Amino acid sequence: MSKNLFVFSAASGAGKTTLMNLVMPNFPNIVYSTSATTRKPRAGEQDGVNYFFKTEEEFKKMIEQNELAEWNVVHKNYYGTPKFFVEQKLAEGRDVAFDLDVFGKVNFDKIYPNAIGILILPPSQTELEKRLRARGTETEETIKIRMENSLKEIEFAETKGKYQYTIYNDDLETAAVKLSEIIGKYSSFKSSSQSGS
Ligand code: 5GP
Questions:
Q1: Could you tell me the distance, in angstroms and rounded to a whole number, from the CA of residue 186 to the centre of ligand 1?
Q2: Which of 16, 130, 145, 180 is most buried per CB count within 10 Å?
Q3: Which protein residues are within 6 Å of ligand 1, measured from CB?
């Protein structure tokens, strides 16, 4: 059976995490790639689960040793996809989902050109700012950085990103149905008698 790679990208605060948490449990064959980052863990985040949290020195060593399928600096922190994780999951016959910024996605495509790109966008910049503030995890400075980056990201994604699908997350339920339909074309939906392996 063919294995699928799904690349999800979004502008900050587009509601990607909420949307993914709603939809992905229905597709048990898809495993999330765990990225490496130099960003500090947020409350509740665990090393090796949400991210592999690295110092800048450790991250740069991973780049030097060619351990990353792609990497980029996002909001002043390094983020990258460890190759061993992708290769291991593909060897196990799993589909793999990646959460990449729009620039990292272009580099990722060079190694995995058949990946399925799904872009998740907020309904408007005003709504995006509102969501970032409501999240309560960002400072004024990071909100400003994320808003500016968001505009650049959207423009780049729409002109160079080569995403097969774009979802506007104005209504969570509607977006979740759309996303499930897209993923369901490639990967099988959880049946009531889910096999455990
Ligand atoms: P956050 O810090 O909110 O978890 O993620 C910030 C940004 O980093 C998001 O846009 C996310 O898509 C991106 N990101 C997370 N992991 C990776 C990665 O492995 N590579 C790249 N290029 N971007 C990533």
A1: 24
A2: 16
A3: 9, 35, 39, 70, 72, 74, 79-81, 99-101, 104
| Tokens found for residue 3 | 């294995």
pTM: 0.86
Token match 């502008």: residue? 11
Q: Hey, what are 187's tokens? A: 């990967």
SS3 150: helix
* Token reading at 89: 């999951």
For the segment 95-114, what is each residue's pLDDT rounded down to a tens digit?
999 999 898 999 999 999 99
CA of 59 to the centre of ligand 1 (A): 14
Ramachandran area for residue 129 (φ above 0: left; ψ -120 to 50: alpha; else beta):
alpha
How far apart CA 100 and CA 71 sit, in angstroms, is 9
